[in-house]
Amino acid sequence: MIYTVPPSVLKLDGDPLEVDKPKVVIIPVKQRADKPVIEGIVKKLDEVSGGLVSKSAETGLFKAKRGELYTFPLNGKIFLLAGVGKGENADDYRRGLAKAAKQVVDKHEEVAVELSGLNAEFSNEAMIGFLLGAYMLDHFKSEKKAKLRVVYHHGEVNLDYVKPIVEGVYLARDIANAPPNDLYPERLAEKIKDLFSSLPNVDVEVFNYDRLVKEGFGGIVNVGRGSKYKPVLVKIHYKGGGKKIALVGKTLVFDAGGIQVKPSHSMTDMYADKAGGAAVAGILWAAAKLGLQIDLYGLLGVAINTLDGESYLPSYVIKMWDGTKVDIGHTDAEGRLVIADAIAYAAKEIGADVIIDLATLTGAAVVALGPLIAALFTRDKQLENTFRDASEETGELIWPLPMADVYKPLLTKNARLGDISNVGGRWGGAIYGALFLEKFSHGKKFVHVDIAGPGIGGGEASSIAPEYWPGRHAPGYGVRLVISVLQKLATS
Ligand SMILES: [Zn+2]
Description:
6-stranded mixed β-sheet; Leucine Aminopeptidase, subunit E, domain 1; elongated; 492 residues; alpha/beta
């Protein structure tokens, strides 16, 4: 990991009510008819405590609503009951346990999580929720707050599944939230190279600025040229065999809007304009550690879009990697230029069967779907369904928007001199972005995921987001969703 290492997870030998350590025991509790369900270990705890749980239920002190917590000391231990509501789906467990994690992460070094009696899916997802809830980005503070080091679990948790997923999300969060003076493009590339060198079957290749210029990556070069921190393209290749799939991530380490600078209030969160590439790195990490049978490529177009004498200008006509001439209608529509080069490279040089991009591309996607739901664009019905199933399973929300041919003429009509323009009409900007990118996929199966809302998180999202999101920070959206998609594609 780049900054934040998840707590270790170990199996607890014995009943957490009886073993001496750890002193903190977290128990998920379901709810029926507005009351906690007192069965299994909760019943045992109720008996040992002289009816503490049932009395709390009678008095309405603890109802086991999802996200409700109830803490009490007993026999030298601290018990933390975590309401999971009806406990009918994985998200009930993920969210309930994440809330408990937030309660203990800065107070205790070791805790036990009681998961016996849960089915395999709920046990795994409860542990994932707990560990994601325990994420604290402390790296940049002089005094670290996170204390939690070891999580013991009692029950059946498949750590070969849980750990890679959690590490992938931590990695995506670390990258997405990093300040641009720390992870500028070349530094980010180096860190990724170092990190992935520990994995067998993974190669990382970094295309530096000179190489990008020489090989004609006009989109990446023009967007990134105005920063003293020059742009790079990072190619991660996990050789898992099977279908060839390429993931492309928009990785704007910072987006000031370029010469057509953003208003200052819209610029604050733009360190997280790299959330797409951050997710792609996290997905590659998780896929390799899970050993998925996929020949998987990750391409991160990494740049800083800022103002300088060298910056590209509106009215430039730039030549993209595949030869397309693009009129620059606006310098803040830069993400599509950076990833279009990578998409074309994935189609023509790598020859991927499927290309999926993740990008914090348009404010229009947030206007359409709000801060918690990503926009899904694809012409492939089967892939659309796969994404929707994966969304349902992971709780990472997505909704389809159309690749609407009716707007396609704008691609050429808006171009003053070149072949196409990087800006569409006043309305429907998310659709135009998707149509623009699709052009560079050269007939390959193509999926565009606009994560401008859930990729960045924070703001309005933090008060309604699931408990396993890290408050004001970018949540690493897309890692669990796309891993679930890849698992389905690997077996289909
Ligand atoms: Zn922009």
